[in-house]
Amino acid sequence: MSFKSLLTMLTPAILAMGLYSSALLAHADHQHDTVNEIVVNNAQIRDFLPGSKSSAGYLTLVNHGDTAIELTKVTVESLGRVEIHEHQHVNGMMKMQKVDTLQIKAHQQLDFKPGGYHLMVFEPKEPLKIGQELKLTLYFSNGDRVFTQASVVSLESQIAEAPQSQQHHTHH
């Protein structure tokens, strides 16, 4: 087989490979890497107490990226409304207020916990069950979304776990 006929046979394959790898490279430029840099752990939604119109959600959010990100919205499957709230000490009083956007600095860990930032959840479409997993979606100002599963927990189990969560773990 001559070199020329071999080249004629291989050219389409070489061209296809070239096009494929450049398409991959072009795609990589548009890929938001922030999704891999945001890690969500221990997402929990507290079961609604009888007669209560709202409940709370907690999670740990870590920004492993080199740039600050802004959390703009949270949704939880089968819950009508989710708000981000924070507790603030104002004149010696504990006040809770809604936060529209929450900045997480580069390499910062933010714990949503009792007495700090937390999610307020409203309007369950059906009664929640302890141990149930609900899809939780975090929306960021750059258009990224991060999904996780939130476990439905009872108030009692959260109180029981509280002493352990007071320990400070250092991550390097």
UniProtKB/TrEMBL annotation:
PANTHER family: BLR7088 PROTEIN (PTHR36302), COPPER CHAPERONE PCU(A)C (PTHR36302:SF1). Signal peptide: none annotated. InterPro entries: LpqE-like, Lxx211020-like, PCuAC_sf. This is Copper chaperone PCu(A)C.
